[in-house]
# Entry
Amino acid sequence: MILVAFALCAGLALVLIALCRTHRQMNTVVVAQGLIYTATAGYIFVGEPLPFTSFLIGKNFFFIDHLGLYEVLITVLLFTLAAVYARGYVENLLTSGELEKGSLRLFYAAWCLLHLVIILAFFSDNLALFWIFAEMTTIISAMLVAILSARENIDAAIKYIFIASTAMLFSFVGLIFLFEISRSTLGEGTLNWTVLMQHASAFPTGVMTAAFALIFIGFAAKSGIFPFHTWLPAAHAKAPSAVSALLSGVLLNVGIYGIIRAYALVHQTGALSVAAPMIAFFGVLSIAIAVISMLPEKNLKKLIAFSSIENMGIILVGLALATPLALFWVLFHIMAHSLTKASLFFSAGILHRQYKSPLSGDAIDDIRDVFRLQPLAAWGIIIGGLAIIGMPPFPIFFSKWFILLSLGMQSLWVLACVLVLLFIAAASIGFFVIRTFSRVSPPGELTNPVPYLTPATMKFPIVILLVIIFIIGLMFPAGGIVFINQIVTELRF
Amino acid sequence: MTDPAFLDAIIKILFVCVIITAAYIITTRNLISLVRVYALQSLTLAGIALALYGIGGSMVLFAIACVTFISKVLIIPYFVANIQERIRIKRDIEFHFLNPTGSLFISLALMLLTYISLSRIIPDIPSRGNLFFFGAVIGLSLMLMGMMVTFSRKKAMTKVLGYLTMENGVLLFGLFATELPFIIEFLIIIDLIILVLLTMILAVGIDSTLEEYHNRLHRFYLLEGKEDIP
# Structure
């Protein structure tokens, strides 16, 4: 019933968008959709006992458990804020001619579909169904990347589609393997995660390893893990900032979510002894590659995008440890990273509007006089940057701390490597901020005298997100701890 | 119905057809024949599904054969050919780092590799006969060959065909390795159609200059600024 409500709401929003004439109306529709979804997710959170499988439609296809709901809560929050942010941002894209008026309707239609598809993906019980929704998110979000009428955007979108989709086909082969495993073990083939979880301990090790490796390839590409990360910086940097925030804060989670689901299955079989080192290896490599690319990076949005790859690497390393404690903090890290990264992209969007280079999208942003022109965005980047590198009052500090602590208990050498890499990552963000934000044009020679008047709708989401992460860092509510603990129990760690 | 041994032989012949089409897709530079060969390959797959149904498979196989025929033999090739005609690119002579001969050798190596690795993995699954094993091997290698095309060609148009070949490989693998529920197969086809639509529209952009791209979009009525068109 609830999923029908979600789908109906999206359908209604699509119709309204088709009817709307101005940008403001369309944006209002999307914001309203976000609010309704938030309310519905909140209702499930408060009112329904989980896990929750009895639906009017597709009892065998959909279900809601704590993990799914957790991801959905992050998703609806970010979508709503990004929709509010888009009100000012897209308006400016229109006036500056970067987005054509004709594409506007397409933009918002894709936005609203993406929201629906992501939620359906998180609520899928059947892994093949999840795969299809994940694939849809790739296509729709690539549309959102390509919507700006610039050649680099089309390039980035094509790259994104091809890398993600080809890798996802490997996942599908993995799912076919899994289906065959379940068929030979249970007598009747199924891809329902709940059923698989009940019988996973009986699955043969060899095929299970192959299945997990293949599934991992696809979802790793979706979440920007090395060596399939190459699409990520291009797509994140070229997309409109409101979309970048979603790509980084929500879409990467789709991939990680798939990995977690498959990993929970593997965790119960003997295949763990191969799977865990494998994902740890790719996790550390992703961190390394991201960090090395961050150091010389001069484009703010690319820098933030590489930092996403680094954080996905940390999440993988945490998963590989396969202890309940590590898993708890991995889940916490997912949330903390999403919120922080979204706020960073929002701030970067304001700076991008102020300093956009008229010549080419690839040019280095000529940022100067930032505190005079855009004080809020500057502070947003500084505080967000501190949060993302894991400074104490912010939530990422705690998740990194405990993940690294668990890592240290298993291997000191890997811990040492990761620590050095994380230090370089922090240094490169700090270096970038100090170098670009301290640039001041000499008195009397104001090259960029027109400050971009940031609309309140663009400032509001940044402030909200920063406040949220600050509060979460200072006092994480006990209810949240219980909630995440329930996820850990459901994943049978 | 027909004699199973006869159908068995038919399937083997169709396997050879699949491999030949794959080799052609890897090596050809002519975009128009590429699409035709793709359609032929899909037709072969539909034939294989039908033959499997004849051997005694479930109704699902019949349904898959129908859906494959409609979507991959008729709709997608028609659409791709249509777009190609409008872009007027006939040949794709840009190979990234592989020339046709090299890629043929690599695909041979890929098939061997798949054969060896599958024969290591499969013993865990109760064997369902030689034919099924070969089907799985050819499916997987077809997929890898498609991937090679996707990454070794520059034109987005050829990349799309590489992706489609990959998907054919997955379908073939799925046919022989196990029996997926029909709804899943059907949704995948829908997903595929959307993907092809989108990438084709984008490909119009990437395989031409931006100004041309906008004019073309207007010509296709894909952008909404229809007032520009007299």
Notes: The CA atoms of residues 91 and 337 of chain A lie 28 Å apart. The longest helix of chain A spans residues 151-186.
